[in-house]
Amino acid sequence: PHLSETLKERIIEWRHAQDMSAREIALLAGCSERTIYTVLRNHREYNQTSNPHARPAGRPRVLDQADLTYISSLIHANPTIYLDEIQEQLSEVRKTE
What we know:
Elements: H1 5-16, H2 22-29, H3 33-46, H4 65-77, H5 83-94
Helix pairs in contact: 1-3, 2-3
Domain Transposase IS30-like HTH: 6-41
InterPro entries: Homeodomain-like_sf, IS30-like_HTH, WH-like_DNA-bd_sf
Protein name: Transposase IS30-like HTH domain-containing protein
C-alpha cells in the first residue's frame, strides 16, 4: 500500500531520533523492510521522502478534485441516486465523459 507523507516522515524520525531497526519500523508502519530502506535512502540522497526523479506511477486520473466533490454533493443530496444518473449529471454539468 501507498505510504502517506506523514508516515514516511515518522519512519525517518523512528530511525534517526529513536534509533529503531528497519524490522521494528516495518512492524510499526505495516510495510516491508525494503520499503523502509527505500524511504531512508530517498531521505539520505534527496533530503526528502520520495525520489524527485521518479515518474508518476499508474494511469492519470480521469476525474479531478472538483468532479469528485460534485459527485459527493450529488450523493449527499440524493443518497438513492443511481450510477447512471450520476454519470449523466456529471457529464452535463462538469463536461466529463
